[in-house]
Amino acid sequence: MSDNAVPIRVAIVDDQELIRTGVKMIIDSQDDMHVAVEAADGQQALEKLRATRVDVVVMDVRMPRMDGVTATAHLQALPTPPKVLVLTTFDIDKNALAALKAGASGFLLKESRGEDIVEAIRHVHSGDAVIAPSTTKRLLDRLVAADAESTRRDDVLAALTERETDVFRAIATGQSNQEIAGALFLSETTVKTHVRSILRKLDLRDRVQIVITAYESGLMREA
User: Are 104 and 58 a contacting pair, CB within 8 Å?
Assistant: First the structure.
């Protein structure tokens, strides 16, 4: 990190003190981030985060008083909501999907390596989504089927151009902008332009919501 760079301010929300301590040690060992807030449940997190601004919240899903899904939804109402990275014990977890729908930018397993956690924080802070492609497909194939009518396929197709639909599908498979550019013979700048257009046309927040919408609309079952 350069001398002028501002460290990423992180909050850790988990009811297990051992988990909080371990994640804090990992984060505080990095030059470009530090832990500014710790909380033992969602309610305590909201109280602290209303008074202290952070960039990224590392959020447990299952906690007493207020769970991570509810806390994530409440955080989105803040004037400048932080990014949320959910930690979960199970990669196929209804709560993880609910957290993504509530506004989380991604999730990791609690058993993830320390280097994966700090990289995920960096990615989420920069605006990227953090979900492994293999996990994305298994999670959404299992859990989104029941919500398939919530977003009509024709509405999505009508809103997007043919090329935007190609990019939309590629994002839903977990491909990066660089990978999409290579597969579709486009420049990365052009891909980024398409991504911004997709988000605007479909009124979506980020790439995670693109993934969810792609599966809910049924488009990925056709792919």
Answer: no
117, 162: one domain: no
Structural tokens at position 149: 């009518």
User: Is the same domain home to 43 and 111?
Assistant: yes
pLDDT, tens digit, for every residue of 113-155?
889 899 989 988 887 777 655 555 565 555 555 455 555 777 8
Q: Is 75 found in the same domain as 123?
A: yes
Mean pLDDT of the chain: 84
Residue 110 tokens, joined: 């609690």
Task: Tell me whether residue 222 is in a domain.
Answer: no
Identify the CATH number of the domain in which residue 127 sits.
3.40.50.2300
Distance CA 101, CA 122 (A): 21
What digits encode the pLDDT tens for the residues 57-103?
A: 999 988 999 999 999 999 988 888 999 998 887 655 577 778 888 88
Q: Concatenated DSSP letters for 98-161?
A: HHHHHT--EEEETT--HHHHHHHHHHHHTT--B--HHHHHHHHHHHSGGGTTSS-HHHHHHHS-
Closest CA to 156 of 96, 209, 192: 209
Average pLDDT over residues 207-219: 79
Looking at the DSSP bridge assignments, the partners of residue 57 are: 11, 84
Among 86, 118, 141, the domain-final residue is 141
Say if residues 110 and 178 touch (Cβ distance below 8 Å). no
